[in-house]
Amino acid sequence: MYFCGMEMIFSFDEIGQTAARFWEQFPEQRVFVLHGQMGAGKTTFVNALCAARGVEDATASPTFSIINEYRYHDAAGRARSIFHRTSTA
Fold first, then answer.
1. pTM to 2 decimals?
2. How far apart are the C-alpha atoms of 47 and 55, rounded to whole Å?
3. Rounded CA gap, 70 and 50, in Å?
């Protein structure tokens, strides 16, 4: 995957560690765009990003919804959300 000028190549077995590194690289950023063909693994990576943040809700592809919201608490105990949206473009 390619992130803001940074490329990360990883296997499915490494996805959890890659998600953790992603959050370390972008600790304060709040909006990300993952672009790729259907089946490329975008939702799988979002699932790993959510798991790395401690999301306990079930995660799913937003293909048939407008937007999915996943809630977690940050290290300071503040309620936070991850919003996962699909694009038809």
1. 0.67
2. 9
3. 7
